[in-house]
Design goal:
Length: about 400
């Protein structure tokens, strides 16, 4: 709530928007619901399914180095519905949580002189990359590395303190949460992984991925009893990977969509995978799409343009839409939002009407959804409005 100090009652679009949201509480076309309170019988509170999902993109990585245990536990504390991760493999076939195809940008690999001779150049999705690749390191070696913050303008105090975690360790974080928290793992770079890592019996990366999910009890179609007990979405930019695992698990799957100029890992073009014909085909395998948000609403010179028909088209095919990635920093916010992330959330949830949002800042999205919930009690509303009045009064006196 400290951010309220930058609002002005008479001139700030941020303040006007927030007050307007409070005034229309209970009257919005799309109902919002707070997370259910913990049940008195001691069971874990269930996953909320009545408002767009709060998907913690690589954990709360706006605060902690991405894909680390603290990033995920922090996201859970802040109200995430799902914690999201990218799955790669070590040289010896252990699945790990790591985003980049190389270790260079987000670990201290450069400080480990014993690995200096591991630098390689590989082709990944038609491009040559040079660096240190996880597929050239055993899990024991990868555990020696420490993760660092990707962006220099974010908190650097946790650099070098946390290790890379495995897929199984990631799952344990979700299962150990005090409430039901879903997982949202990505089958990352499957073509590349299958070229460089081999498993016994001719198994593929995707097969090992599903094996681990089954090992920990993840199963069930979307909103089924089994799924609600341990919710999971499987995501990938590679349609063939999603099709490959269709007969292995009925867990819901999400087809990720990159920028319009970037083909899928199966070399499909953007216009192909967003056509009505393709959506009609792929809906037999997936429950939704996860597009880069600028493909949903393009921007020119950092100003939003007219939305495309991608969301309405997906919804017409009964597909959910979970765009990525929402970030609080001004450099990531379009000018239309006046440096106010809550205006951005309001636009995407109430105007574009998406079904889930990948965010680096789980807490801010959770707060927005809580503050605009039509199911907040009158007493809670009164207390919140009183807090706003006190803060505004304080601001006017300074």
């Amino acid at each position: 709530m400290e951010r309220m100090a930058k609002f002005s009652m008479t001139s700030s679009p941020s303040f006007t928007t927030l007050v307007f949201l409070f005034l229309i509480v209970g009257c919005t076309a799309r109902p919002f619901y707070p997370l259910p309170s913990k049940e008195s019988d001691g069971n874990r509170q269930p996953l909320q399914t009545s408002r767009p999902y709060n998907i913690a993109h690589r954990g709360s990585n706006g605060e902690f180095p991405e894909e680390t245990s603290p990033a995920y536990t922090r996201a859970i504390d802040e109200g995430a519905d799902f914690i999201e991760t990218d799955i790669l493999s070590s040289k010896d076939g252990v699945l790990i949580c790591f985003h980049d195809v190389t270790l260079d940008d987000t670990t201290d690999i450069a400080e480990h002189k014993e690995f200096a001779n591991r630098k390689r150049t590989y082709e990944v999705q038609g491009f040559n990359y040079t660096g240190f690749f996880p597929v050239d390191f055993t899990i024991k070696e990868l555990k020696l590395l420490r993760v660092k913050q990707r962006y220099t303008f974010r908190d650097q105090q946790y650099n070098g303190k946390f290790s890379i975690i495995t897929f199984e360790e990631f799952i344990s974080i979700a299962l150990d949460a005090p409430r039901v928290v879903g997982i949202y793992p990505e089958i990352k770079n499957p073509v590349f992984i299958n070229q460089h890592v081999k498993w016994q019996g001719g198994k593929r990366f995707e097969d090992k991925f599903v094996e681990i999910l089954k090992k920990y009890g993840y199963k069930g179609s979307y909103l089924s009893k089994d799924w609600l007990k341990q919710p999971a979405f499987i995501q990938s930019f590679a349609p063939t990977s999603l099709v490959h695992i269709a007969n292995q698990t009925d867990l819901p799957k999400i087809l990720l969509i990159d920028e319009v100029t970037i083909p899928t890992q199966d070399t499909n073009q953007y216009w192909e995978i967003t056509s009505d014909n393709y959506l009609d085909y792929i809906k037999e395998y997936v429950v939704g799409i996860g597009p880069w948000k600028d493909t949903v609403v393009p921007a020119i010179n950092n100003y939003l343009q007219a939305p495309t028909d991608l969301v309405s088209k997906a919804h017409a095919h009964d597909l959910q839409v979970h765009p990525y990635t929402y970030r609080n920093e001004n450099k990531f916010l379009h000018f239309d939002f006046h440096e106010d992330e809550y205006q951005e959330y309001n636009y995407w949830i109430n105007t574009i009407r998406v079904d889930g949002l990948f965010t680096d800042f789980t807490g801010s999205l959770h707060n927005f959804q809580e503050w605009t919930s039509s199911h907040t009690s009158d007493d809670e509303k009164s207390k919140l409005l009183h807090k706003i009045a006190v803060m505004v009064s304080s601001y006017e006196k300074t």
